[in-house]
Structures are given as structure tokens and as C-alpha cells.
Design brief:
Elements lengths: L2 E5 L8 H14 L4 E5 L5 H5 L11 H5 L10 E2 L5 E4 L6 H9 L3 H4 L2 H6 L7 E5 L6 H9 L2 E7 L8 H14 L5 E8 L6 H14 L20 H5 L7 H4 L4 H14 L1
Parallel strand pairs: 1-5, 1-6, 2-4, 2-5, 6-7
Antiparallel strand pairs: 3-4
Helix pairs in contact: 1-12
The structure holds adenosine-5'-diphosphate and magnesium ion.
């Protein structure tokens, strides 16, 4: 059985997609079979791996509507162990369609869809949209755990209570096994005192939820601000295939090792 991890934070631009792509790729390079599932209508994880609309006809929208099985939309990527379930702008409509249904159980379609392929992968990583609507609820309902990227900037922790509360509601009502895998400080800059403050804040409040390479370590994993991480999607590549030795690449490899335990 695979471990299903959603990358979530209702704020946009905090590093969700960057984390989803690069964690998935780092796990795949570590010989794990990985499926990256893009459920953001903006489809940044899809384009970031080099796919544009002309490369694929069917996408996660067709899975949400029940027209396709997930196995019918999966694409192979440049990394042999990494597969992608692509998204597309068409997914925007799903948010309203699902919202219409009063019955929570009926809104939950992704969990069943992923069950079809769960045995084929070691990890399924879900990149979610910047909202806590029906799509993200579907991701939470389908997942074993959640990673919450926290951008090292002003008001970083503002809004964290909201995502934690949503996770709690899902846990109580539809998915009791859902856990928080961890908080991941992103875009950390050594030149910026704010960055240090945010990580200090996280240590104070969520120390147990920060990633370390070894258990009991005080060396917490932070993702540095690294221009290579911002550049690599425009080449359609995860950082590990674009600049394997860059600080951003090394940080995501460390995150993968931490998750492998
Ligand atoms: N560690 C980083 N260093 C530099 N740029 C980053 C880093 N993480 C993300 N970015 C850039 O910041 C922007 C937002 O990141 P993204 O992963 O798309 O966030 P989200 O999915 O939460 O909206 C993107 O342009 C991305 O390339
Ligand atoms: Mg994104």
C-alpha cells in the first residue's frame, strides 16, 4: 500500500507546488515508485514537469467527474519511477459542482479513485489548490498525512490555525487516520531576520512537527530561497534534474530521506 501525502496551505505562493514536485522527484530518485497527483486547476505541478495541454487529453477533472479512471490519465515523466496525474483549468468547475452536494460522503470522490492504483506506488503526493474548498477536502479525505509548507515571511503562521482546523474536521468526520506529517519552512533566507523569526516561532509552537534527517536531531530541515528552484519549472524539470547540487535540491533530498525514515 502506498502512503498518500497532501501538500496543503490555503495561502498561495508558499511553496506547495515546488514541494510537491521536488519531494515526489527526490523520492523517485531514491528508487520509490511515486505518483504525483495535481488537483490544482492552475496545473502548476503539471506544467512544472514539462507537460502542456497538448501533451494530454484527459486529466484529473475527468476523474472527479467519473468519466475516467485514474489509471487512464496517468502520464510517465522523465524520471522512470515518477508518474503524474495531470490537472487542467477545467477543474475550476468541480469546486462548485462538489459544493452543491449537501452530503459530505458524496463529495468525496478522490479517495475511491486513488484506491485503484494505491498498490502500484510507494508514495502518492497530492498538490492542492490555495483554498480549503471541496478539492482540498477531497485530498485530505484520501490522504494518510499532510505536509504544510510555511513561507518564511511576515504573517507566516497566520492562517495555519485554519488549515489545522480543517484537518481536524476531516479527521473527525471522514478520515480518522489523517495525520500531520510536518510543517516545512520554505524560502528561508539567511540574510533575512524574519526567516529566523519564523523558524524560531515554529520551534516554539510545533517543534515535534518539524522535519529532521535523523530522529531526535535538532537540525531542522528548511528549504532555502534558491533561484534554481524558481527556474527549474520553466525547463519542465524537477530541481534534481536541473541542478542536483543546488541548495534547493539538497534540501528536498533531505526532506525525502526524512520521510523515508
Ligand atoms: N525555495 C524557493 N526558492 C525560490 N523560489 C521559490 C522557492 N519555493 C517556491 N519558489 C517560487 O515561488 C513561487 C510560488 O511557489 P509555489 O511552489 O508555486 O507555491 P504555491 O504552490 O504554494 O502557490 C513560484 O514562482 C516558485 O518557483
Ligand atoms: Mg501551487
Amino acid at each position: 500500500m502506498s502512503e498518500i501525502i497532501t501538500i496543503a496551505n490555503q495561502k498561495g505562493g508558499v511553496g506547495k507546488t515546488t514541494t510537491a514536485i521536488n519531494l515526489a522527484a527526490s523520492l523517485a530518485v531514491a528508487e520509490k515508485k511515486v505518483l504525483l497527483v495535481d488537483v490544482d486547476p492552475q496545473a502548476n505541478a503539471t506544467t512544472g514537469l514539462g507537460f502542456n495541454r497538448n501533451n494530454y487529453e484527459y486529466n484529473i477533472y475527468h476523474v472527479f467527474t467519473g468519466r475516467k479512471k485514474i489509471s487512464e490519465i496517468i502520464l510517465k515523466t522523465e524520471l522512470p519511477k515518477l508518474h503524474l496525474a495531470p490537472s487542467n483549468l477545467g477543474l475550476v468547475g468541480i469546486e462548485q459542482e462538489l459544493a452543491k452536494d449537501e452530503n459530505l460522503e458524496k463529495k468525496i470522490v478522490l479517495r475511491q479513485a486513488l484506491a485503484e492504483v494505491a498498490d502500484e506506488y510507494d508514495f502518492i503526493i497530492i498538490d492542492s489548490p490555495p483554498a480549503l474548498g471541496s478539492i482540498t477536502i477531497n485530498a485530505f479525505a484520501a490522504s494518510d498525512s499532510v505536509i504544510i509548507p510555511i513561507q518564511c515571511e511576515f504573517y507566516a503562521l497566520e492562517g495555519v490555525a485554519m488549515v489545522l482546523n480543517t484537518i481536524k474536521i476531516i479527521k473527525t468526520n471522514i478520515n480518522p487516520k489523517l495525520k500531520i506529517r510536518g510543517f516545512l519552512p520554505t524560502m528561508y533566507s539567511t540574510q533575512n531576520n524574519l526567516s529566523k523569526d519564523v523558524v524560531e516561532d515554529l520551534k516554539q509552537n510545533f517543534k515535534e512537527q518539524l522535519f529532521t534527517i535523523n530522529d531526535g536531531d535538532e537540525d531542522f530541515i528548511v528549504i532555502p530561497r534558491n533561484v534554481k528552484l524558481a527556474e527549474s519549472p520553466s525547463f519542465g524539470k524537477p530541481i534534481i534534474l536541473y541542478d542536483i547540487k543546488s541548495p534547493g535540491s539538497l534540501a528536498y533530498q533531505n526532506l525525502a530521506y526524512s520521510i523515508l525514515g
